[in-house]
Amino acid sequence: MSGYKKLIKLENIPEIIIGDFDCGFNKLRNLEGGPKFVFGNFDCSANDLTTLRGGPKNIMHTGIYDCFDNNLTSLLYAPKIINNFYYFKNLLLTLDYISYNE
């Protein structure tokens, strides 16, 4: 499909992003080299991710963590606190590693 990006790895990304970070619709297999803190939305949807390793440790405020449409079998390495987490359309075998705010 035209318009899709072709990134295969994340490089030279600041550790802290104030605003949204979108690396969706690429060919990423992991999130190594990406930001550690995002003060906004984080979108890594529609890649070839098999792991969330290297992804943000925190999505601040009311941000969305969107990792739908990948090849994830686990949510290991997902942030511990997420307000809105979209992880559908993956190959998940378990929902372990998710914490919900009550």
Please provide a brief summary of the model:
0% of the residues lie in helices and 18% in strands. The chain is an all-beta fold. The model has no long low-confidence stretch (mean pLDDT 89).
Mean pLDDT: 89
Secondary-structure element sequence?
EEEEEEE
User: Any idea how many domains?
Assistant: 1
Quote the distance from N terminus to C terminus: 41 Å
Our estimate of the beta-strand percent is 15-25%
Number of helices: 0
Low-confidence stretches: none
Overall body shape: globular
The class by helix and strand makeup works out as mainly beta
Instruction: Tell me the number of strands.
Output: 7
User: The biggest beta sheet, please?
Assistant: 4 strands, parallel
Main-sheet strand order equals 2-4-6-7
